[in-house]
Amino acid sequence: MCFSSTTTNSHSTFQKISAPHLPFISLLPTTSSAVAFQEVSAVPENLLEVLFLNNELEGCLPYEIGKLNKAVVFDVGGNKLTGPIPHSFACLEKMDRLNLAVNEFYGPVPEMVCDLPRLTNLSLSHNYFTQVGPMCMKLIKKKILDVRMNCILGLPGQRSAAECAKFFSKHKPCPNARSLSYIPCRKGGFSRSSLTSDQQSMAPAAAPITYDALIPRKHKLLL
Fold it and tell me: Does the keyword Secreted apply (predicted)?
């Protein structure tokens, strides 16, 4: 996995971390006031877990995350990330725990994400999502999907209309917005239909390990 990074006293731009042969990658909380999430490339085939929680990350998620097709954990909770969920997340067929909570994501929750066959925990609370479809509603009823404190009409526990209006009056669109509709695992790349569970690999996925081993250390990257 490749990111980019530059550090100053008051602002850090998260730019380049290379881990081509490692099964998991974890960026622990730093003291920086802001870190910009910019690019992902050269994704290793064996990467199983990505933990970037509580790191003041900013920006939009890139479509390349969809190449993590063996990952079982992706956690970017507690940052300042924004934009819609990339449709490339439909390729995360082994995903077990997906945490995007406590950020500034918005837009409809893609049905193809809620249709991922192995999800046991999808946390999208404390964002600005605006809509969920039938597949997502099923996950809410099963208590797999948490969408509290968003902007979804008709659901309990949402933000106030005034709070949602204030956010949408100031939010900025993601650069290269077309890439958010790109699905790298699908022929043609921009198919409109959603992936269904029976189209996805049902091979056993590895059990998550890093949550149990995570020890906070400032400015320390565990690889």
Answer: yes
- Report the distance separating Cα 114 and Cα 112, nearest Å: 5
Q: Which two tokens stand for residue 177?
A: 């917005």
Place of tokens 């390990």: 209
Domain enclosing residue 32, as ranges: 6-185
Q: Which of 109, 119, 107 is nearest to 143 (CA)?
A: 119
CA distance 16 to 89: 22
Judge whether 106 lies within some domain: yes
Helices (H) and strands (E) in the chain, counts: 4, 14
Label the pairing between strands 12-14 and 6-7.
Answer: antiparallel
The verdict on residue 100 lying in a domain is yes
210 within a domain of the structure (yes/no): no
Residue linked to tokens 């008051």: 10
